[in-house]
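Before a colleague's protein record goes any further, I have to sign it off. My question to you is simply how this chain folds and whether the tokens agree. I do not need a full report, just your reasoning and any doubts. This is what I was given:
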Amino acid sequence: VSRQLKEEIRRGFAGLEDPLAGLLAMLESSSDWKGKGHSLGYYITSELQLWIKEHPAGPQSGIELKKLQARVLGILSQCPANLLDPLISIYQLHTADRNYLLEHVSHLYLKGSYKEAAILSMKLKLQPDQDVEKMCTPLLLQDKANVVEDYVGEYPELQSKLLQILDTWCEPSFNIRDITRPYQGLSRCKAEKFNRRTLSKLVFRLLDRFNVDPALCPNVINQRHLRTLNYLFYKRFVEKTMTEENWADHIQSTVGENRWLQGHLIQLLVRHCGECAAARWARHWGVPMDMLPPGLTEQLPEPHTQERIEEVTKADNYEDSKKKDYYQLPIPRENIHFLQTWEETLQCWEKVLQPGQVVGIDMEWKPSFGMVGKPRVALLQMAVKDEVFLLDLPRLLEQAEVEGEKEKLPRFMQKLYSDADITKLGYGMSGDLSSLAATCSALKDTEKQQHGVVDLLTVDKQEVDGLSPEHRHEERGVRQPEKGLSLLVQHVLGKPLDKTEQLSNWEKRPLREEQILYAASDAYCLLEIYERLCKDPESFGLSSDLRESLVQKRSIKPVTKKQLNKQEALSPSGQQCQGSKVEASRAPGAVSPREFSVVCDNMLQGLGRYLRCLGVDVRMLQNEDDHRKAAEIARQEGRVILTSGLPYQTLQSQVGEGRCFSVNCSEKAKEQALQVLKHFNVRVSPTDIFSRCQ
């Protein structure tokens, strides 16, 4: 606002006997302030707020103030959000009679102005005196879940109440129409989005955002666990890609002592294994006798029977004879070290931190199967020439806390990642570092401070399409459906990784021998790939200066939130773009949004719309579409799948690894988009924005 206008506004206030009444008279006789943006009415109101602070007058009589408050309440229901706070402050509405304010909000609600009623309630902090179900139901029907989240945001009791209500609506026997019926004819109603799937997704987002105990929502949690059970049976008996031990671990941790899940487990066992094997597993997991059908109780083995669960349930997913088909560790077993104390880790630090060292780094965590929270790293693998170190991270972090030395791990990791003389190899390192930060918050800025890092995922993107057919089928005869790192290992070293332990329970101790060998192989193969590519990059379609083009020598400078808001649409990685030559300054391996095509699962439609605004080629599943349709579209059109939660486990097995990405559903579309763009190294320029039809 110009200085002259400010002075004119202030002279006007000084000349009024009652500036508060004068402002109301102006607002009541004008309508320019009702639109969006900063109107003249907004500037005048803001200046009066400042002027009152600088010229405090004596207290206004209670009767006069009440009259002004009654008038301003009539304006609040029509004014834009930017006028609410100044008017509430000027007319001291927080001191007004609470019942009177509640009555006014109730009047707005009865008129059908549900969003306005909720926003005014938040501004006046009236939520504790309102019915959370009554206030939030019409907002959910209008697809305004963000307003609902903000409405309960500062009140833990209301958060719990809302979650319990939503969980009740997700009970299988509950009739959703009982909720929607009273709101027939509701304007801007999106009843088609008001279903168990959408509500379940909202529950998980709220549980994550507000850090509420999931036990508060048994219906939603049980349904998610049931989907996990179905998925585990699919992996074991249909896809045949999960070992028996691995499968049994996950079944036991998923079902526990939940009688409802035990009942469904018995049904699945009978369907997939037959009654005899179902009876054996029931005994093995200690399922109560009264849960079993009469036919099964007769087939239960005697308690003293020690025989192992037999071949009846065995899926032919893995045999020793097939080991020759997979990558084998070229080092003896005694060179794999499982480290559980800080004393044991000293030998690891000494070797890993040597100048000029090349280190293969990988991490493992227990699959979440779509449950709340980010995965926490359970095993950190570091491979150097002829040795692999497996760090039991939960045990080490617990020991460090007991000893009062929480900085041990962050100090080592920051020293490792910031040293440009040590080459760190990984595959999809961004995801690993994100999980590491969730495990140890002191490591949240590691990615911004890294030097000398080689992410072989970028090699994979450059190299796979450039391979000759001879390389692709080397010594294998037939193209195998390998994915991601396994496919890269096959292309470069001739044999793929054995991924049967990928979905293991990595938190369970002791680790099985198969898990130890798998974890060591995942890290050590990075050294062999890198060595082979550096020796002969041209034969893999790569440039001769491979290391120079791959090693990230400069760290990404941290930026303030204010700076990030200005530039994030142009450079989601957080690196500043200088001048107008954005297109020309794309980093090596970076792609433009026009070259990036995705298919968004139906729970990520907001993300799809946001990416389309940035110029990305987006297709979106509709609410009624089955998740598997995303895989069909991805294969037919060469798109990357963006999904979340449990569907990721199914979809990633149907396309090449690296072609399916799991998005954090608890974040807003903007943050999700930044995550996707950063992961796939997509750089957006000003010409990309709104370049596609919306």
Q: What stands out?
A: Residues 304-319, 464-480, 553-588 have pLDDT under 50 and may be disordered. The two ends are 34 Å apart (CA to CA). The CA atoms of residues 583 and 685 lie 6 Å apart.
